[in-house]
């Protein structure tokens, strides 16, 4: 898997969704989706884009299991958090409150693991992280 391409393309999808939600809120004059909109842009677009650039700039070994686990937790965590947040706050299906809460918390927990893995990776693969020149 090309980590940079995967994360960059996924971040582009989040950017489109976040921009669409933002323009919908502005046009409708309602801000019910502001928390979901903000998290889609910050967690989905900005974080995944930053991770894509990390893998592009620093040559982390392709066979790194830590990096592979990081990419998967970044993807599933951002998806779980943002979708879970939408389910929890918007409640598109009545009677699913417990499921929505678990989905929301589960996604956030996976995303937290992603950021812990990223911090660990900054030290484990520290020899690959240096200025060019």
Written account of the structure:
The chain has helices at 3-28, 34-57, 65-90, 97-124. The chain has 133 residues and is mostly helical. The chain has one domain (3-128). Helix 1 runs antiparallel to helix 2 (34-57) and helix 3 runs antiparallel to helix 4 (97-124). The radius of gyration is 16 Å and the shape is globular. The model has no long low-confidence stretch (mean pLDDT 93). The chain crosses the membrane at residues 12-31, 37-57, 69-89, 101-124. Keywords: Membrane, Transmembrane, Transmembrane helix.
Question: Whole-number radius of gyration?
Answer: 16 Å
Mean pLDDT figure: 93
The rough form would be described as globular
- Which structural class do you get from the secondary structure elements? mainly alpha
Strand residue percentage: under 5%
Helical content (DSSP H or I, runs of 4+):
over 70%
End-to-end distance = 28 Å
Could you give a short account of the major beta sheet?
none
Number of helices: 4
> Poorly predicted ranges (pLDDT <50, ≥5 residues)?
none
Task: Provide the number of structural domains.
Answer: 1
Tell me the series of helices and strands, N- to C-terminal: HHHH
Number of strands: 0
Transmembrane segments: 12-31, 37-57, 69-89, 101-124
Keywords: Membrane, Transmembrane, Transmembrane helix
List keywords for this structure.
4 helices; 133 residues; single chain; mainly alpha
Briefly characterize the structure.
The chain crosses the membrane at residues 12-31, 37-57, 69-89, 101-124. This protein has 133 residues and is mostly helical. The protein has helices spanning 3-28, 34-57, 65-90, 97-124.
